[in-house]
Input
Amino acid sequence: MIGECIAESAPFGVVRAVEQSIAEIGCTAENITVTKEYPDGRMDLVCEGRKRFEVLEVNRERSFLRAEVLLVPDEPEGAAEQERLRAIQFHLEVLSLAGAVQDLSAADQSQLSFYLAGSLPLDLDFKQQLLAMRSEGQRIQAVAAYLEAILPKLRRASRAREKAGGNGHV
Output
């Protein structure tokens, strides 16, 4: 499937597997580059998510799933500036606690929620819920609330790592 998409410069769909089925909402992805090709045909890729879709009907005729989909546009409501800043603040604190940095200047502000959530190893159920939301304002609020909820545990873990690294001394 990926070989066909690369040859045709075509996007492909990414859908989360759930139990014996697939999620109702997925995302198109575009291959940006092939970073490595293996002798058995596998590839390491860098891809970017593009447009959300709803799966209408699954076609199992080939060795990979194909589907009839309906693109799901966002509602025009954007995120409030205060909520965006709150989500960014929590995101930057999570990164800092992990010893990482990220440049947010390249992020598409109309899709900031996906950028923030996609750059962290967050719970897959939460990410799927985010994908199903049709409002950037809702998604930014959800991301901010999620990050705020996990920050106390991350702070405690960071303090414990610091103490352990100092042999118990601060």
Notes: DSSP finds five helices and six strands in the chain. The chain has a mean pLDDT of 92. The helical segments are 2-7, 81-97, 112-118, 124-132, 136-165.
